[in-house]
Design goal:
The complex is a heteropentamer, with one copy of chain A (435 residues), two copies of chain B (253 residues), one copy of chain C (322 residues) and one copy of chain D (490 residues).
Chain B lengths: L5 E10 L2 E11 L4 E5 L6 H8 L9 E9 L2 E2 L7 H7 E4 L10 H12 L5 H14 L3 H4 L12 H14 L4 E5 L7 H15 L3 E5 L3 H7 L2 E6 L2 E7 H6 L4 H8 L4
Parallel strand pairs in B: 3-8, 3-9, 6-7, 7-8
Antiparallel strand pairs in B: 1-2, 1-4, 4-5, 9-10
Helix pairs in contact in B: 3-4, 3-6, 4-6
Chain C lengths: L4 E4 L4 H14 L6 E3 L3 H8 L10 E4 L5 H9 L5 E16 L7 E2 L1 H8 L2 E4 L2 E4 L18 E5 L4 H18 L1 H7 L4 H9 L7 E4 L3 H10 L3 E6 H6 L4 E3 L1 E2 L6 H5 L6 E9 L9 H8 L2 H4 L4 H5 L2 E2 L3 H10 L7
Parallel strand pairs in C: 1-2, 1-3, 5-12, 8-9, 8-10
Antiparallel strand pairs in C: 3-13, 4-10, 4-11, 4-13, 4-14, 6-7
Chain D lengths: L1 H24 L11 H36 L4 H4 L5 H20 L5 H5 L8 H7 L10 H39 L6 H41 L2 H6 L3 E2 L10 E2 L2 H32 L2 H16 L2 H20 L16 H25 L3 H8 L5 H30 L2 H6 L17 H9 L8 H32 L4
Antiparallel strand pairs in D: 1-2
Helix pairs in contact in D: 1-2, 1-7, 2-7, 2-8, 4-6, 4-7, 8-18, 10-13, 10-15, 11-13, 12-13, 13-15, 14-15, 15-18, 17-18
The chains are: A mainly alpha (435), B alpha/beta (253), C alpha/beta (322), D mainly alpha (490).
The structure holds adenosine-5'-triphosphate (2 copies), magnesium ion (2 copies) and phosphate ion.
One adenosine-5'-triphosphate sits at the interface of chains B and E.
């Protein structure tokens, strides 16, 4: 009916619609832009992290075949600094090695010492565990020093290198020869994943394994305390609490706790858990408890927000057929608000996983994660560090080798975070629905 | 102790300042169908929701007066509203299925009240309820599809099925047939008639015909007042109040 | 509890970690746990009492003070062994490719960074924008210095041994007192720095200072000697008073800016917590803390009086607290 | 341990028997029961667990106190005259007693032999040292006696504790079983129990607050004893120096709180629009696949350790901003002299906070019923109009919660500020200038080199306390606003 | 180009695997009221929602065939659904007021379409719409109270007011009177009649009487099929299809 005066084709947009559609497009573009900005930053961060951290996953070693005599062993064991003696024995052995390979290069013992990392500990540990290897030729793959590793990675070049007691330019000639002879090679650095912290003069020996365990036990505590307590508290406040002063107080309290600097939770943890309750220092259990208190507000706030968003008709429906309030909440409201709860958990745990400041006060930062716990109980109670604390410690160390380790640690932490989140994200996906 | 299943005395309901129900006295007999009629917004739903304390959930709503169920004041602090609601079931005006499967929607009540000893009994209850609510043929092939994916009328019948599955003693139905076609309506009316054999049913309806067909007693509300409450026949043939008269005589719809 | 627990100074932490690792590797004792958190927090925990759930050893980059001892006494920590492990050299370094900041006098630093300086005999708010403004030998580069924040003990050393010294050297101090200030006020005025982006306080650690130097060719930063020596390929150091900072010059007392490092042992824990004394002895053994040991290798200025310290530990000589 | 195990076992048995008994009282017909059968079991289990666990906890707290008192009566006032405090002596006794326990456990000395132990003939300290128990000084006869007394008392105490707890558990069991009957309102009882648990969970937050206040307050008071409160609250300069030199520090709070607010606001200016638009896009526009990827992706931002952000601010964003706003920069203005500035830290922190706003808001927006959207589309609204005018208002309470959470996080953040904003406290209006925050200073003062009971260190506690009170006021205000706004709708 | 306002050709609608609308052809004339009747769940709402592409919002819903509005295919990719919906307004089966004030609910459409030049005009539109939807008397004192606090029937009228406030060319009404009392129903029917003067109206109803009263054309749906579509008189007096016959003759409700 073209005679309708009002006829306008829907394919031709009138100016107003055009304007509205432009606004729509803009709005949408803002959304895309916002996500893109977030993504961009994430990409930039990831790039930085990967670039700086990936080297931590490779290591460079020198192959060396050594026969340690019983006398040498006994002699070394009688010294105070045994590890240094072992190292010297190995360095002395080196010329035989070169001869055997038909390599001719000028070197002195000091140069070799500069090339190798702190290998004495490894050697001693090997012989103490395998006493039968004494007197037998044994092949070792010895960690190179962090500067030599830097040379392999291109971080150190002959141009930038300044002679120092750590490395001299001439040492690099030896490295070149040994590399060409196949005696120095790179390999995947398992020790980084499984190892423990090391002294500041031994970047090659540092690993994040023990602190991963520490973080793991801490996160167990956080998850199993903060999620149930947080959800329970939210349910009480949102569904059952009478609307009175006390409830208001609690509500304000919780939002306020979210703004308390994390280090203050550390102060609290120190005085409550360690000084008052006499829990052990540097223990993941205490760390977990402190982080639990810190994450609670995040979980409570997000849980309450999503409980609030469940429409009242659902509650009515359940109550109307004789479900108790408790049943209506646990059977209907809670499952529907699961996505929000899980989001809160993801964010809360992520924050807890990356937090260093409160750990500072309860003794989990420093040179802590040197030993693996030997059981579940000791996993909770024995001194251990946590990944962010370990990273923080490494980042402050002078040797550039540790800087790489710190970034490598960040990669491990993020992988840990992703694994942890994956479960929650999967669950959240299952609970998401629209009605 | 009265002979009435429910008796409401001097009930007042306020939504904040809005006085929505004024001084209503009603006695609802056992094994009868009572219809509430009246213009939209006159307080039918509000009053109905008082009868099983569903108004408790609305913060700003305040109920005064006494409502006795089997002689017990249901607003007494010692009364457990849960038990009350198990006895006095409700079908809401706006269909509100749970965002779960059709089966789970119906099975929920029996489950929480422990009405079935096992899965087979539960299946039976679900089937019976859906049949009674005239939804079985449409739903039997998609019992595990979400209840929210049903058509408006289907959702309404689902809510009816859900309510009767818990076998309440009193069933409050707020416009249960508003979205139903004549045939489904007839089936629901049949159901109501059947329920009346053992329980009492209170139904809110806008259809005078329906009220006349299914109810024995009718209450006419107007602006929050209970204008007239009497035998249905009487109301429709010989109302006492002129307001009732004029409402009835606008006999349309 | 099996392992020795140590807490305290982040300056001592690197050395303690080296020793702890070696202690674990070379003895049958478990590796001690060394927490960081600062000298003062460490001493606080040290003085919390005696017993399993208190630490055995506190690291500190400053001597123990009366107020610390008071708290210790209050909590029954009566026998404290003080162990000086060596010295921390404090150096001025800048980007290796940056302007030629190779030789400073305390007076230069004071003239560059002091809030008020002496110009032509008057005490005025510091007008200098470039190093060459007051010393033609220095490069014509903008003045930017990254100095430790006031929480760091290093800042105190910097103020005392460089700024104050420079203040006296330039005669500014004298002029201030002549201008009517009390000696204390004058000292305070001497050590006040300019701020305003010309001096930048660093509350983090040396890696942060390094990052800032990296980003700013004109910047000079204050580092620990060990940190500098580990990063000679990106940093160049300046002499102070004509002396190059090395472990030797500092040990000999030629290089002026350094501070002693300590740890404190709770005597009550010796013999009860396995390894406390052994660890302390191991720490200051010649093989470790001596001039050829790994600590010196890393950058600690070893203590010329190490033997005396060894004797103190051996005899468990405690501080005279009363 | 054994007691706990027994109680738990009793709970399990109680659960089964309660269920069984309820059913049989209804002659096997679940329908005759007042509540679902599981509730009867839960009731029994709870009746066993709750009282006995409460007793256990109370006992665990009370027993040492009582024993201390009894042991304290062992030594007279003249012992105290030596300068030791009674609590220290008791502590010592307790340590010795615990040590003796270990000694016995390891079989070094028999239980009987302990009774005849005396300080002269045995070096108890060495004995204990052998098993790794630290004792402050040599053990005197008096301490040893006290320790023995302590041991025997706690042994009897522990014995009776076990008995009492088990008895109470049994009593609970019997009581609950007796009540179990088809007419018993098990559900109500259990639900009341659950409600109490929920309430208990809610009070954890209050307890945390109490704990925080308690752990800050004493040092705060000490601080104000040593430093004038007026100078702290109204001081405009933050320049702590070393107390060794005689307390010439300026510890003005204003520049710190100014920096905190300034940086937080900058970060919210970044995070709120970005987060909100992300949330809107994710929940309303994005396909399922995009959403499944993008949302967790943004959430990673919340999990990157803040030190990484700090380094990122220091090394990347700061120099970038300088090259834009600095001398000879892209915009040809000279606003920014150093890379560390309020805006550097604020913007990087904003990025970190994106997921706080986006993820939570996304969940809440997603929970708005579809009927609302339909209603709006049906009127010919575009999607953006629908979102802006229907969905966002409906989701507002939750979104406000998310933003408050982000704001809280911004106030509490440390590392990014330390690295990104610089450590200089200044009361400047210029976002391109270095600033610092309360939190950053709490950390630095607390971990520094100063004496711990000097004002320079204790100021950390006062800062914490003041910040706590300020955020409390802000939250009260926010609650008030949200309430007021919410009353219009809903 | 046809003479019809809307013509649907071979329309198929699927919900996932569920074939909800089968091969429907309907031509809706301008300035007429067309009624859709049929048993609950037969696809009335589904088909109605196709006419202004509201089905776009249901993920699993797939529409095939052509639907022309003024000769233009509304499913053409170049068609802007926003403009379409501004022309083809809708009142939903379940009342869905926005969680805003009554005033804002009604003013929402005019605002986004820029129908009012100023506040006064807007107030006028709101009042006129509320009056037409027979809600003005009840709502005028609480214009700024939330729309969700209204009774069921009031909400339904609010939704009608909201829809007509945007002055659409075609108005789709899904059971607009289901929750209304006879008097309100009469008022809405009057409104429909009035709208018919300038626009076309499509109404879904379960009340045969209502269909007979207000519509000129009636379509009878059954199990997703359009069984019969003809003049209303014809359908109700002399249906061709036996299914129509039997549905009509169950004349209840
Ligand atoms: N969102 C949906 N998802 C899946 N199936 C649906 C959905 N909506 C409707 N259906 C199904 O499509 C069929 C037609 O539904 P429709 O809503 O069109 O019925 P109707 O004729 O409007 O019925 P009523 O009168 O009860 O409202 C029904 O079988 C219904 O269950
Ligand atoms: N939640 C509420 N908040 C405020 N006022 C309300 C609320 N619910 C209902 N009212 C008001 O109370 C009065 C009675 O409402 P009620 O829902 O009982 O009407 P009704 O008789 O059921 O009408 P209808 O037939 O339209 O459903 C109406 O004026 C309504 O606007
Ligand atoms: Mg109603
Ligand atoms: Mg429908
Ligand atoms: O950590 P410090 O106390 O040495 O600065």
């Amino acid at each position: 009916m073209t005679d309708t005066p009002k006829f306008t084709s829907m394919k031709v947009q009138d100016p107003r619609t055009k304007k509205r559609n432009a606004a729509e497009k803009r709005f949408r573009a803002y959304g895309i832009a916002a996500i893109a900005i977030g993504g961009l930053f994430l990409a930039a961060l990831t790039f930085t992290i990967l670039k700086s951290g990936l080297p931590a996953f490779t290591q460079y070693v020198m192959k060396l075949e050594v026969t340690l005599s019983q006398e040498q062993f006994d002699d070394a064991e009688s010294q105070l600094l045994k590890t240094a003696v072992y190292r010297d024995i190995f360095i002395d052995n080196f010329s035989d090695q070169l001869e055997a390979n038909g390599i001719d290069v000028n070197y002195d013992a000091d140069a070799l010492e500069r090339l190798l990392g702190k290998v004495g500990g490894d050697i001693r540990a090997h012989y103490r565990e395998n006493l039968s290897d004494i007197g037998q030729p044994t092949v070792f793959q010895l960690q190179l020093s962090s500067r030599v590793e830097g040379y392999f990675r291109g971080r150190v070049t002959r141009d930038t290198l300044v002679d120092s007691r750590f490395l001299e330019k001439t040492d690099l000639d030896i490295v070149d020869v040994l590399r060409d002879a196949g005696l120095m090679t790179g390999r995947f650095n398992w020790a980084f994943l499984t190892g423990t912290d090391s002294g500041v003069d031994n970047p090659g020996g540092a690993g994040i394994g023990a602190s991963v365990i520490g973080s793991f036990f801490m996160m167990l505590v956080v998850l199993f305390l903060s999620l149930p307590i947080g959800v329970a508290a939210s349910i009480y406040l949102e569904e059952f609490a009478p609307k009175n002063r006390f409830t208001d107080l609690v509500e304000v309290n919780i939002s306020n706790l979210a703004a308390v600097p994390s280090i203050v939770f550390g102060i609290l943890g120190l005085s409550v858990f360690i000084q008052f309750m006499h829990l052990p220092q540097s223990a993941p259990l205490v760390g977990g408890l402190v982080l639990t208190l810190m994450t609670l507000p995040t979980i409570i706030i997000s849980t309450r927000a999503s409980l609030k968003s469940v429409p009242p008709s659902i509650r009515d429906a359940a109550l109307g057929i004789g479900a108790s309030k408790m049943q209506s909440v646990f059977h209907h409201v809670l499952p529907l608000s699961m996505p929000g709860i899980l989001t809160g958990t993801i964010i809360g745990l992520a924050q807890a996983l990356g937090e260093t400041a409160p750990l500072l006060l309860i003794g989990m930062v420093g040179f802590v994660a040197r030993e693996y716990p030997d059981g579940v109980v000791s996993g909770f109670m024995d001194p251990n560090s946590a990944m962010p604390a370990q990273i923080y410690t490494w980042a402050a160390r002078a040797d550039v080798g540790f800087y790489e380790k710190a970034w490598g640690g960040i990669i491990v932490l993020l992988v840990f975070l992703l694994l942890m989140n994956a479960i929650a994200i999967f669950l959240r996906k299952k609970f998401e629905r629209r009605w | 102790m009265t002979d009435y299943k429910i008796s409401a005395k001097d009930v007042q309901v306020y939504y904040g300042d809005n006085h929505a129900i004024k001084d209503v006295n009603v006695d609802i007999e056992d094994k009868t169908v009572t219809a509430f009629i009246g213009p939209s917004g006159c307080g039918k739903s509000t009053f109905l929701r008082c009868l099983n304390r569903m108004n408790d959930t609305i913060d700003i709503c305040r109920v005064e007066g006494d409502i006795l169920l089997d002689g017990e004041d249901i607003y007494d602090p010692s009364v457990d509203p849960v038990q009350l609601r198990a006895k006095v079931g409700m079908v809401f005006q706006k269909p509100n299925p749970f965002p779960k499967s059709i089966y789970d929607n119906v099975a929920y009540g029996p489950k929480i009240h422990g009405l079935a000893r096992n899965k087979i009994e539960l299946d039976e209850i679900v089937e019976k309820s859906l049949r009674k609510a005239a939804l079985w043929t449409e739903a039997k092939d998609r019992l595990h599809a979400p209840g929210t994916g049903l058509s408006g009328g289907q959702q309404q019948r689902l809510c009816i099925a859900r309510a009767i599955a818990t076998a309440p003693e009193v069933l409050l139905m707020d416009e249960p047939c508003s979205a139903l076609d004549p045939i489904a309506t007839a089936q629901v009316e049949e159901l109501i008639d059947e329920l009346r054999q053992s329980f009492s049913v209170v139904i809110v309806t806008h259809s005078m015909q329906q009220a006349a067909r299914v109810s024995q007693k009718t209450a006419f509300f107007h602006l929050g007042n209970l204008v007239e409450f009497d035998e249905t026949d009487k109301i429709f043939t010989n109302p006492e109040d002129p307001r009732t008269e004029s409402y009835i005589s606008g006999r349309i719809g | 509890r099996e392992n020795v627990q140590i807490a305290g100074s982040s300056t001592v932490l690197p050395y303690a970690s080296i020793v702890a690792e070696a202690f674990g590797d070379n003895t049958d004792f478990p590796t001690p746990v060394v927490e960081s958190g600062g000298s003062s927090a460490g001493l606080k925990r040290f003085c919390e009492g005696v017993g399993e759930n208190t630490i055995d050893i506190a690291n500190s980059s400053r001597p123990i003070r009366d107020s610390d001892i008071e708290l210790c006494l209050e909590n029954g920590v009566t026998d404290i062994i003080e162990v000086r492990i060596g010295y921390d050299g404090i150096v001025f370094a800048s980007q290796i490719d940056g302007p030629a900041f190779t030789a400073f006098e305390p007076a230069d630093i004071f003239n560059a960074l002091g809030a008020t300086v002496l110009v032509d005999g008057d005490v005025v708010a510091n007008p200098h924008t470039q190093w060459s403004d007051f010393n033609a030998d220095l490069p014509a580069a903008d003045i930017v210095a990254f100095i430790p924040g006031t929480k760091h003990g290093t800042r105190e050393v910097f103020e005392d041994k460089v700024l104050l010294a420079g203040c006296e050297e330039t005669g500014a101090m004298e002029a201030m007192i002549a201008g009517g200030m009390s000696e204390d006020d004058a000292e305070d005025a001497c050590i006040e720095v300019r701020g305003n982006g010309i001096t930048v306080d660093i509350d983090g650690d040396y890696t942060e200072t390094l990052a800032r130097i990296d980003a700013n060719p004109n910047g000079i930063g204050i580092f620990g000697l060990a940190f500098y020596e580990n990063n000679t390929d990106v940093l160049k150091v300046a002499t102070m008073g004509g002396v190059e900072p090395t472990t030797e010059t500092i040990a000999a007392g030629d290089y002026p800016v350094s501070r002693p490092l300590f740890f404190f042992i709770k005597q009550a824990h010796i013999g009860v917590i396995p390894g406390v004394k052994e660890f302390a002895q191991f720490f200051i053994a010649d093989e470790i803390a001596g001039p050829d040991g790994p600590l010196a290798q890393y950058g600690l200025v070893s203590d010329p009086e190490l033997a005396a310290t060894q004797a103190t530990v051996e005899a468990e000589e405690t501080l005279d607290v009363n | 341990m054994l007691t706990i195990g027994l109680v738990l076992a009793l709970c399990a048995i109680g659960y089964m028997m309660g269920t069984r008994r309820a059913l049989s009282s209804a002659s096997g017909d679940q329908r005759l029961l007042h509540s679902l059968k599981g509730y009867y079991g839960q009731n029994v289990a709870l009746s066993i667990l709750v009282p006995s666990a409460t007793l256990l906890v109370v006992w665990l707290i009370a027993q040492p106190l009582l024993i201390n008192q009894s042991v304290a009566s062992l030594f007279s006032d003249q012992d105290l005259a030596e300068g030791a405090s009674s609590s220290l002596i008791i502590q010592d006794m307790r340590r010795v007693a615990n040590g003796l326990d270990v000694v016995v456990d390891q079989g070094l000395v028999s239980d009987d032999a302990i009774a005849s132990l005396d300080a002269e003939s045995t070096n108890v300290r060495e004995l204990l040292a052998d098993v790794g128990v630290a004792v402050g000084s040599d053990v005197t006869q008096q301490t040893l006696d006290g320790a023995k007394r302590y041991r025997s008392l706690s042994k009897t105490g522990n014995f009776w504790r076990g008995i009492a707890v088990l008895a109470l558990a049994l009593a609970g069991f019997v009581f609950a079983m007796q009540r179990t009957d088809k007419n018993f309102r098990a559900r109500n009882v259990v639900e009341r129990g659950v409600l109490i648990l929920l309430f208990g969970a809610a009070t954890v937050a209050v307890l945390t607050t109490v704990g925080i206040v308690l752990s800050l307050i004493f040092n705060t008071i000490n601080f104000f004893d040593a430093f004038p409160a007026a100078d702290f609250f109204f001081g405009t300069r933050w320049e702590p120096s070393f107390s060794g030199r005689g307390g010439a520090s300026d510890l003005g709070f204003l520049p710190l709180i100014w920096g905190t607010m300034y940086i937080s606001i900058i970060s919210l200016i970044v995070a709120v629009p970005l987060g909100l638009f992300s949330a809107i896009y994710l929940s309303e526009y994005a396909s399922d696949r995009v959403r499944a990827v993008a949302k967790p992706m943004l959430e990673i931002l919340a999990g990157i350790p803040t030190i990484v952000y700090g380094l990122f601010a220091l090394l990347t964003v700061g120099p970038l901003l300088v090259s834009a706003f600095g001398n000879g920069g892209f915009f040809g203005v000279n606003w920014m002299s150093g890379g560390t500035a309020a805006i550097t830290a604020g913007s990087v922190m904003g990025i970190m906070l994106i997921p706080f706003v986006s993820s939570l808001s996304d969940d809440i927006i997603n929970a708005v019923p579809q009927a609302m959207r339909d209603g709006s589309y049906g009127l010919g609204a575009t999607q953006s109009e629908t979102i802006r005018q229907v969905i966002l208002p409906a989701a507002l309470p939750g979104i406000v919660g998310a933003i408050l959470l982000a704001a809280s996080r911004a106030i509490g953040e440390t590392m990014i500020v330390v690295l990104g904003a610089g450590a200089a406290a200044s009361l400047s209006l210029n976002p391109f200038e270095a600033m610092t925050t309360v939190t950053a200073k709490i950390v630095s003062q607390l971990t520094g080199d100063g004496e711990f009971n000097s004002p320079e260190t204790m100021v950390a506690f006062a800062l914490g306390m003041t910040l706590f009170i300020i955020t409390l006021c802000l939250n009260v205000f926010a609650l008030y606003i949200v309430r007021k706004y919410r009353e219009q709708y809903d």
